[in-house]
Each structure stands twice: as structure tokens, then as C-alpha cells.
Amino acid sequence: MAALIPTPKLRDLLGQADPTGAMNARLVSSTRIGIAAGLEAPKIFIDLPTETLVRATTGEEQAQYVTLTETAPTEAPRSARRSGHFTVRVLDKQATETSLKSALQKILRLIEEVRPGTLQKLAASKGRTKRIVARNRQDLFKDPKLAAKFATPLMDGWWVGTNNSTKEVENWVRLACNHAGLEWQREVSLAVRPL
Question: 175-189 pLDDT, tens per residue?
């Protein structure tokens, strides 16, 4: 049976593990949630039975417990991007994600899966200060410091920028639809049900 944790405690632990909101969380077992950048191996875990953070050392089996005071942010964490249950759909493929960032990543992967070459076309499109996807993470942002902070692997040598507002995500997905020859809202959709 999976371990349970009160929602306020989970929010607190997530905020301490990832104060900038730039990481991803995924269930790695029935008792642990791994926190990592992109597709990397988790560097920190939320242990549900003990309601503590566990930092990985040379492997999960050798993880050491970290007290909450060691990982507490020195300043209040910024508010996270919109969260909830995001349903993404591309033609007959559908998935549910729990953050705007992961919903964007999933919808871009699905569009590329059904219309190969879309990411290449999308990479050629650039806004005033950034593009949404690139082969080289440094090509995502005008400011190289942002690439180090807000670039995450998408798939097969592709990088995606993760510091997008809800409106920016919608605009990027609409542009991806145009490049893929798919109709927004009829063939591709992104819907949110807030938590």
C-alpha cells in the first residue's frame, strides 16, 4: 500500500527541496518522490513515511537523511507557476500532467511524435528574448545565465525552456500546431483543472 502524507506537509517539503520551482518531481516508489532537473537521476527524495527529505549520495540505497533546517531556503520561495491537473491531447493521444512545465514538455513530445520535424521548425522561431526549443541549451535564451537555470532536456538531444507563463505556453503550443499542420483546440488541446 502506498504511503500517505498530508498535503500541507508535502507542499512544504516540495518548497524546501526545490525553492525555485525549476525541478521536476516524480514518484520513484510507493514511499518516495524523487526531485530532479529534467530527466536526471533524482538528487533528493521526499520520504513519505517519515515526512523528511533524503539526499542521494552514491545511490538511493545509501541515501542519508537531511534535516529540514539544512534544506530550508534562506528566503521565501517564489510562487510556483500554475499547478493543477493538465490534460494534454494531440489527436488520439492523451496524458495528464501536474504542472504547466510538464504539460508543455508532454505536448511538445506528442506533437513531434505525430508530426516528426516539428521541433526543428519550432527551433527556428524566436521571440524577443528566447525560443522554446533548441538543439543547444545556450540557444534557448539571449542571456546565457538563463540557459543554465531554465533549460531542461526535452527528448533526443532537444532542450526546452521552462520559464514560461501560461499565456506563453499557449502561444508556443499554437505555434507548434501551425508548424505541424494541426488545428489548435480541435486536434491539439491543453486543459487545466486547478488543484
Answer: 999 999 999 989 999
